[in-house]
Design a protein that fits this description.
With 276 residues, the chain is α/β, with parallel strands linked by helices. It has one domain: Rossmann fold (3-Layer(aba) Sandwich), CATH 3.40.50.720. The protein has 9 helices and 7 strands; from the N terminus they run βαβαβαβαβαβααβαα. Helix 1 links the parallel strand 1 and strand 2.
Length: 276
């Protein structure tokens, strides 16, 4: 029997990138997966990837999946996604808040509307999902919430600085807020058997969206990158295998899950999850 057999999961931002990788891993572990994003069909975006494609890949590997379009900044969309998961699979056991955006720009360049949008997607979205899903998880006896964060949540440290950070501070600020929200929510739900953890890639991971924007500046160099997100998907599975009443409130990095918690050595991790 697979470790997540009989469980159902809802993954946001799963039309491509890390969300798709996490959805694939959860399905391979036996979970029935509802994937959500704004891009339902390939024609909906100029960036490769769609909910249809994710579902087809999961079904093609013997998994169970369905999809619904969802803008995580719209409460009615969140409600519909949760209800669709319950209708399709009978319950919700796992929620992965992966949907996120990065709008680069230094302080003199970034418009207020862009700052607001980054916070709406990266921070308000997980809040809206948590508010909607907590009663559902509680009714089901508990479950797991995983918020996908980033190393950008950690500040650059004290100066002086040789090179300016051209991407600006907005994205990292939202991820720092998301990690604080994750631990605060974990403490808030500590007596309800609902685990809340934050999970980030330890190294940069290739994605369709990231590649699309990086190629605008020429041929990108992916040295030191992982070319797929299998490691973060497997880390999410490992988290969901832990007792939700005990393993909660953690800020985790995918590689460190396997080195510090699973006990793999550096060579075993490299063999399983190669770095370019």
């Amino acid at each position: 029997m697979k470790s997540l057999e009989g469980k159902s999961a809802l993954v946001t931002g799963a039309s491509r990138g890390l969300g798709k990788d996490i959805a694939m891993s959860l399905a391979q572990a036996g979970a029935s997966v509802m994937v959500t994003a704004r891009t339902a069909e390939e024609a909906d975006s100029h960036i490769p990837g769609s909910l249809r494609n994710t579902v087809e890949q999961i079904l093609g590997t013997g998994g169970t999946a369905s999809s619904i379009r969802c803008d995580v900044t719209v409460p009615d969309d969140i409600n519909s996604a949760v209800q669709a998961t319950v209708d399709a699979f009978g319950a919700v056991d796992i929620v992965v808040n992966n949907a996120g955006i990065l709008i680069p720009g230094q302080i003199t360049e970034l418009q207020t509307k862009h700052w607001d949008l980054i916070f709406k997607v990266n921070v308000l979205g997980p809040f809206l999902m948590a508010r909607e899903i907590v009663p559902v998880l509680e009714k089901n006896g508990g479950g797991h919430i995983i918020n996908i964060s980033s190393r950008a949540a950690i500040g650059p440290g004290p100066g002086p600085y040789d090179e300016p950070r051209l991407e600006g501070s907005a994205y990292g600020t939202t991820k720092a807020a998301l990690e604080r929200f994750s631990q605060g929510l974990a403490a808030e739900l500590g007596d309800r058997n609902i685990a809340v953890n934050a999970l980030s890639p330890h190294l940069p991971i290739w994605s369709e969206g990231g590649h699309f924007f990086r190629t605008k500046g020429g041929e990108p160099d992916y040295s030191g990158w992982r070319m797929n997100g299998e490691i973060i998907g497997d880390a999410a599975v490992w988290i969901c295998e832990q007792p939700s009443s005990e393993f909660t409130g953690h800020i985790l990095y995918d590689e460190l899950v396997f080195s510090e918690l699973v006990g793999l050595n550096a060579q075993e991790i490299q063999d399983r999850y190669p770095v370019e």
